Model the fold of this input.
Amino acid sequence: MKRIALMSLAALCASTGLFAGNAATAAAAKSLGVVYSDGRPTEDVPLERIERESEELFISAFDLARIFKATKFWNPGNRKLVLRIGARRYLFTLDTRAVMVDETPVLLRVPVRYADGAVMIPLEFVTDILAPRAVEKIALDRTRLLLSIGVPEYNVTGIDISDDRAGTRAALALTEELLYHIDSETPGILRLKIYGGRLDPAQFAVPAAKGLLNRVRAEQTEHDAYLFFDVATRVKRYKVEFEAAGTAGGGGRRLVLFLERGELPDIPQADFAGKKMVEMLEEGARRSIVEPMRTIAIDPGHGGTNTGRVSRSGIMEKDVNLAIALSLRDRLMQELGVDVVMTRSEDLDVSFEERVETANAAGAQLFISVHCNGWFTPDAQGFEVFFLAPARTADEERLAREENAAGAVREGALDESAGDIDFILWDMAQNEYINESSDLAEMIQREMARTLDIRNRGVKQAGLYVLKGLAMPGVLVETAFLSNPKEERLLQSAEFRDRVVEAIVGAVRAFQSRYAAPARR
Done:
């Protein structure tokens, strides 16, 4: 009986301690005030402090999904949670700090946890990861624990159309100066792409004719904004330019499309873009950036002691890059009749400066750098093409810095002196070929999507290291992931490499047709 009493006392002490612990946790718990701008009432959402050694507050994934109208998928078998918020996918794994934002890992300070039947996410996810990527403005006052979810933070805020004897003027109000590209692939339609632009399409719809504009419509994609101008046949020529900073008022900018009145039957096809760049194009005019296209520079990434990515089975990126590049050289010479200069033709160390000097000294009209991709998990897959341009936003610049700092977690990661995969970015002020580089990147991306049966990761314009001095359009092609077992096998296949080469050759042919005068040999 005495033993039973002692056991009961022990159990009572244990249970008392347990409840005391819960009481302590509950006492430490706080609530987050959430203020919406879409008409939903203000509410209080519980927060928990789970880590004893940390002051970080956690919010349940259930509340997070409800607040941001996210779709969610929980897989208890592999302890993973997926939230899709807007156009982005966030993948969490219990007891780890890494959050996969689409295909990019970002580290939290503390891990995601599971408590009382709920996945608990550190509050820093909202401020440090979600807010910079959200279209709507998200602000957290940590002192008051107040979360404000505002109206979308647009940087293309309005359009003003005016008309006079000279022509029609469409002025777009911007909060910052953005890179743009304008073309006319469809007769009578001007397409303006604003890189990193965010707008409300409904605010830009002009359904009725105004001056030389028949109508205007807008589209918003995940990264960029598009405006489509249906113009009258009386347009003689047009130009696009940024107004001087002082004319827009309030510290903003205006991107102005001017249509000059005339009697010509069609709109000229135009290709130009860039910060503060203005160009007038007459009927039938096209800027020929290479007259004619005679020489192309091919850059097999890495080489020598710089192996690049290394797969789990020991395949080195430098070898795959060289094999693709040599085949590309032969096909370009045979099929397009151009000369090709190689930055390396064997397994040698070649510096950034030597690669640039080789291309410039040869008078190359295009620069194509061939690489394989890699990541610290085997899940990442697909091809992507980079063109040489500034990151679209401050957030992309921050992400680039984070990726550079986190390079050590990648398979076969490079240090700063060896990272020529990261030379895809330069300051736009140093280069006049932003638009042509973008076009070539998109052409390669389309051809690769047609010929390769792997994921299309799209065209990117963000990078890590700055490269200056290349006097021609340039792109960097990431063919596939050596860190992905399936794609590693593909990269070892001559058939797959031939299809990569076929895609690049097809894109160069299209680029040559669009921009270059015929070669006279």
Summary: Residues 97 and 182 are 42 Å apart (CA to CA). The chain has a mean pLDDT of 77.
